[in-house]
């Protein structure tokens, strides 16, 4: 048997955040956790990370083993090449059998194309699968970065978890204002201050949408966060620059084929504007809900939940989009739903 085909796919977590936001500090802290013992880390430069004191053994020119057991490597050439190289080493037993890969991006990266590489590449998609995207936002400079740098907003908008760093250096008012702003920009993400006691166990990376026990809880959380945001804030707070979050709802079950067609058309036309899409679907003829997740024009494989999360019935889709009028999407979705019934 080909050893490569017998290996389960590696979950990839993207760790992103603007320049100097505190990605490496968070990574160092997380790598000390037993839960991340079997993680590999892919970063741009060892120098930037300053992991020297973690380092025990050099496996190869660009791969080291950390004291914690984690594998750490630099991105050599392109991302795809580095991922395939790492996969080959794993399959050949040349590095410990890691099951998770943490990819720390540069501060100016747009995570969208990274996700696209992982999900759309015909070879990589069988060996890797997307886990949570974690974005670090600095409590001191975060608001200004969001104002000035589109990369910063995009990093925040695509996140599954937003970690606020440097809360020890900012006053409460600043922290609350930033939290409020991030909740508007990305209501589907959990926002955690770095000094939150939950962080070491919060499984920032570990509890992801592919984990069956975490799935239902996670979906309920996105939807509750969006509903709360709608109930408590004026519509305009959901709008930052031209990035907005909005929800599409339908109480009547959808026709799966027609919905697929509608979504393909939406993403075909507006794929670059849709930064993130997460939803729970009620499908005709299926009792249990289906979860869909997408980043830009890519939709991950739909996942069936065993039960409806507490208090939620019917289709609820959270869309985070840049430069796209929510009314156009709502109207098109409503027209589609009307035609279904
Ligand atoms: N006081 C305080 N300092 C922090 C915190 N998080 C990070 N820092 C400091 O902020 C600086 C930048 O942190 P890094 O972890 O290197 O940030 P980064 O996002 O990896 O930086 P780049 O890779 O250069 O983009 C360092 O001096 C850290 O010690 C925090 O929560 N509180």
Automatic annotation (TrEMBL):
<keyword id="KW-0547">Nucleotide-binding</keyword>
<keyword id="KW-0143">Chaperone</keyword>
<dbReference type="InterPro" id="IPR051316">
    <property type="entry name" value="Zinc-reg_GTPase_activator"/>
</dbReference>
<comment type="function">
    <text>Zinc chaperone that directly transfers zinc cofactor to target proteins, thereby activating them. Zinc is transferred from the CXCC motif in the GTPase domain to the zinc binding site in target proteins in a process requiring GTP hydrolysis.</text>
</comment>
<keyword id="KW-0378">Hydrolase</keyword>
<dbReference type="InterPro" id="IPR027417">
    <property type="entry name" value="P-loop_NTPase"/>
</dbReference>
<comment type="similarity">
    <text>Belongs to the SIMIBI class G3E GTPase family. ZNG1 subfamily.</text>
</comment>
<dbReference type="GO" id="GO:0005737">
    <property type="term" value="C:cytoplasm"/>
</dbReference>
<protein>
    <submittedName>
        <fullName>Cobalamin biosynthesis protein CobW</fullName>
    </submittedName>
</protein>
<dbReference type="Pfam" id="PF02492">
    <property type="entry name" value="cobW"/>
</dbReference>
<dbReference type="GO" id="GO:0016787">
    <property type="term" value="F:hydrolase activity"/>
</dbReference>
<dbReference type="GO" id="GO:0000166">
    <property type="term" value="F:nucleotide binding"/>
</dbReference>
<dbReference type="InterPro" id="IPR003495">
    <property type="entry name" value="CobW/HypB/UreG_nucleotide-bd"/>
</dbReference>
<feature type="domain" description="CobW C-terminal">
    <location>
        <begin position="243"/>
        <end position="337"/>
    </location>
</feature>
<dbReference type="Pfam" id="PF07683">
    <property type="entry name" value="CobW_C"/>
</dbReference>
<dbReference type="InterPro" id="IPR036627">
    <property type="entry name" value="CobW-likC_sf"/>
</dbReference>
<dbReference type="InterPro" id="IPR011629">
    <property type="entry name" value="CobW-like_C"/>
</dbReference>
